[in-house]
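Encode chain A's predicted structure.
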Amino acid sequence: MKLVGIAMIVACTAGLGLLRACRMSARVAELERCLSFLDSLEEELRYTRAPIGRIAASLAGREEYARLPLAREWARGCQEGKPSWEAFQRAVESRDSSLAPGDRQTVAPLAQVLGCTDLEGQLSAIRLVSTLLGRRLEEATRQKDSRARMDISLGVLAGAAAAVLLW
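Encoded structure for chain A:
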């Protein structure tokens, strides 16, 4: 019985390490999708000149953005009749997102611009946010590459240490 308990402790701590590594990977993947989303948003604004609510729905309907909470929540808010800026702000604050608080703060200023300023102002704001998010993506990728294995190893080692102490 004692052996089963020790095995469970090792499994739990290893699982915690794996969870931390998965969260880092999820953040990197979501940042990549956000950058692609912003590129598509810029293209849609530039070439279709459609109303911002229609652009939000169009982008959210694309397969590559189906798992992006920002796109999904923004389109949902626009469909519910909320102003674009309010819908975008709520989408940025979505709890489904894997983005870090700093990532959200980087994207949040777009809410004040999308659908509220002229075309060139919107396009420049999107380019600025894309550049800043690109930097955050590089940082997140470096962090994931350097820390993911370490977190898994630390989880296993912490479990092994607890097992030795309990034995």
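The chain has six helices and no strands.
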